[in-house]
Amino acid sequence: MKINQICLSVDDLPKKWYNITSDLPEPLPPPKEPETGPSRTEFLGRTMIHECLGLESSTDSWIPIPEEIRELYIQAGRPRPLYRARRLEKQLGLKKVRLYYKREDLSPTGSHKVNTALAQAYFAAKEGNTTLATETGAGQWGSALAYAARLMDLECIIFWVRTVYDWKTDRRTFMKLLDATVYASPSKETKIGRKILAENPNNPGSLGIAVSEGLEYASQHEGVVYSLGSVLNHVLIHQSIIGLETIEQFKLVDDNPDLIIGCLGGGSNFGGIALPFAGEVLQGKRECEFLAAQSEAAPNLVKGEYRYDFGDVAEQTPLLKMYTLGHRTELEPIKADGLRYHAAAPFISALRHHNMVRAVAYPADERAVFEAAKMFFQTEGWLAAPESSYAVKASIEEARKAEKAGVEKVICMNISGHGFLDIEAYREKLGIE
């Protein structure tokens, strides 16, 4: 019998997160204060989780995972399986190429976001906070933080990009089942939200705006702390649990990936699977390439500039060295809204700057990526989130390219989330009645 599912036992769950900082080709450019205005670093010190902020400047390669968080990971279904995509290989007529995919959709909320949400909620509660405030784009991060907050007996306030808030009614219900308070962003709950609505009452919103609202809300309310779902170092460190598991799973089948593929907006799921492998490349322990799949609606790695920029529209964050389209750039709404962010994580941007990460952007009409997801569903049996569909599309393209060239290749993609609450998007993009 051919085994497609490659599993680790609970005893094999990693005990440490990986931090790539010390293995980068050169020191990560530090955050900077803008030339005018109050200290953004001091502002974050008042609004964010202190334990998480400490990881931002950590040079320790390995960060111990508290036993309580490992218990929460197990509660949420970790370790997660790696699959060999034999049926998709057959559909594509592959002889030289082997395809694998990591199942981060198998979480209680349907995505990889719980990996950092559980850690952030744990540390927030330990520091005596009562409420978490955040933003969300596609809704996966909001769902994950609402779930984590409930497990830690915390309240949760979520500012959700308006265009997605309006059509994802089932995911909104999902968050409210966890007692989260959810606002369409821009909202009337914050000064920045009211300002933007006054300028344009029909503003569709963006992650940059929602981040600004979450930060402002946390700064104005006692006991409230802000949690970010992507981009910052501590988030990608928490997400390294994905790649660390995957490394061990490939050992079980005596195989090694030549190419790691993930979708990328801010960089959390891509960094989660890619950074542990990239660290081993930098240490001379393996050879591997990395490909980020993006939307032409927000091609920060493809068309962005590597420079300092703010992470939010209201300019409340320190300046970070990132590939960015500009924090005030208006980005076209898409169904894979988790990819619609103006900048890529500093870790990923640094690797891109040193030509260790390639990137591709697909048309904003999204037809091609939804068609790829349909093929994946019909062969492998799993319905991927719109964001994950970009990784599926890129993997199919790379597999066909290698097969045509007669090159033996092992490709591993990260399925960052499921599409069960995205059926309306599939119906619209594929013309299903």
Q: What structural class do you assign from the helix and strand content? A: alpha/beta
Largest sheet: 7 strands, mixed
In whole angstroms, the N-to-C terminal distance is 39 Å
- Give Rg in angstroms: 20 Å
**Beta-strand proportion:** 15-25%
Helix coverage percent of residues? Answer: 40-55%
The number of helical elements comes to 18
- What is the name of the CATH class of the largest domain? Alpha Beta
* Domain unit count: 2
CATH architecture designation of the largest domain: 3-Layer(aba) Sandwich
In short:
The chain is 42% helix and 17% strand. The chain has 433 residues and is of the alpha/beta class. Strand 10, helix 13 and strand 11 form a beta-alpha-beta unit.
Give an overview of the whole structure.
With 433 residues, the chain is α/β, with parallel strands linked by helices. It has two domains: 5-11 and 79-110 and 239-430, Rossmann fold (3-Layer(aba) Sandwich); 16-64 and 113-233, Rossmann fold. Helix content is 42%, strand content 17%. The strands form four sheets. Strands 1-4-5-15-10-11-14 form a seven-stranded mixed β-sheet, with helices on both faces. It has a four-stranded parallel β-sheet with strand order 8-7-6-9, sandwiched between helices. α5 (114-126) crosses α6 (140-151), α6 (140-151) runs parallel beside α8 (169-177) and α11 (233-239) crosses α13. The longest helix has 20 residues, at 386-405. The chain is globular.
